Amino acid sequence: MDFSLNEEQQQIREMVHDLCLERVEPRAAEIDESGEFPWDVKELFAKHDILAIPFTPEYGGISGGALTLIVAVEEISKFCVTSSLILSVQSLGSLPIWLAGTEEQKRRYLPPLARGEHLAAYALTEPGSGSDAGGMRTRAIKRGDRYVINGSKTFITGGSVADTIVVFARTDQDGDTPARNISAFIVEKTMPGFKVGKLEKKLGIRGSPTAQLFFEDLEVPAANRLGGEGEGFRLAMRVLDHSRPGIAAQALGIAEGAFDLARRYARDRHQFGKPIVEFQGIQFMLADMATQIEAARALTYASGDALDRSLPDIGSSSSMAKLFASDTAMRVTTDAVQILGGYGYLRDFPAERMMRDAKITQIYEGTNEIQRFVIARELLKDSA
Ligand SMILES: Cc1cc2nc3c(=O)[nH]c(=O)nc-3n(C[C@H](O)[C@H](O)[C@H](O)COP(=O)(O)OP(=O)(O)OC[C@H]3O[C@@H](n4cnc5c(N)ncnc54)[C@H](O)[C@@H]3O)c2cc1C
């Protein structure tokens, strides 16, 4: 299917594909086994300007296009989802600055992220507030030209390795609606009172650190607030509208990687005197997998294109892409394990890792139940 990628997008796809095939795929099993953040892959991506993809040239980047980022995340995810998260989270953590930052904030924080010298994180979720992000308890109290932040965040991807963390906190009185009482702040890891708690042990994306963060009388200059006081919740939701196509791209890449593996295996594996790919049962599975992947790619690229063209209702198209592509990743990776039979269940082959990695795409940046909620709200908004 032709999605009319432009020359820049095609070049980036090829460059990322070749680099990951040669340097990232051989590391993928090790990264999963050790559960350690792959600093070597981060350096590789910085050196080849892959971490510069989410940023426009005026802030040291090489693109800034949503579809270009999608294509890059998709390619990395074919080989190693943990590694794709280094790029995805660089985008997620810098989006609040890009969308709501002042010129001064952008000039200060974006170029080191684009160069890959700094890493970013996005800290919204708390132990008691996941889907209901507006129920957060972390507080920021204004004292003169500073805010004092107290509270904690949980499940923060890259929280233990990030230099620049966008933290959402309540700034107003009890009883206000979430849409009005939350603000966003740029926090630096060196600020006194910033503490990293435990790293979670996970089913998949094991080399991507998922951290608890604590803020103990952490003082942030008022100049580090993003947007106006009380505008943080809206910003948090806008960021997710922009970043969910990236999760769809991750899911799409995993599904494509698993499909390629299953097709190759089905050609090589012989049972009953012939390659198992000659059995119609296997052919039908491959046909279903390929069809779902094509549909997931169409939705994912369309959501990136909608962002690049600033079309209305991007929330709904981003949610549809994430919902469909992540369900596709789960189905396709499960079928890939099935096609590999008993070998699919072993760590000797990447199919089981792909299946474990796929699951998170149905959960983070809003569970798929929440995506349905976003889509339905958009569908029904004019029908009251
Ligand atoms: C590995 C990992 C990395 C993450 N990275 C980040 C990060 O970098 N930054 C960050 O801020 N957060 C991050 N998260 C948090 C993630 O976004 C949340 O886990 C997710 O939004 C769900 O919240 P929860 O876990 O509290 O589940 P809950 O909100 O408690 O949901 C539990 C179940 O109830 C369902 N549910 C909840 N509300 C409704 C409803 N209204 N209708 C129907 N069903 C509903 C959910 O779909 C789910 O099935 C990460 C999580 C994980 C596991």
The secondary-structure class comes to alpha+beta
- Sum up the overall morphology in one term: globular
**Strand element count:** 10
How do the helices and strands follow one another from N- to C-terminus?
HHHHHEEEEHEEEEHEEHHHHH
Plain-language structure description:
There is one protein chain. The protein is an alpha+beta fold and 384 residues long. It folds into 3 domains: 7-114, Butyryl-Coa Dehydrogenase, subunit A, domain 1 (Orthogonal Bundle); 120-230, Butyryl-CoA Dehydrogenase, subunit A, domain 2, CATH 2.40.110; 234-380, Butyryl-CoA Dehydrogenase, subunit A, domain 3 (Up-down Bundle), CATH 1.20.140.10. 53% of the residues lie in helices and 15% in strands. The protein contains 12 helices and 10 strands. The protein has helices at residues 7-34, 39-47, 66-79, 81-100, 103-114, 178-181, 232-268, 280-308, 314-339, 341-344, 351-359, 368-380, and strands at residues 120-123, 139-143, 146-157, 164-170, 182-188, 194-199, 210-221, 225-226, 270-271, 274-275. The strands form 3 sheets. Strands 1-4-5-8 form a 4-stranded mixed beta sheet. Helix 9 packs antiparallel against helix 12 (368-380). The longest helix is centred in the middle third of the chain and has 37 residues, at 232-268. It starts with 6 loop residues before the first helix and ends with a helix. The model has no long low-confidence stretch (mean pLDDT 96).
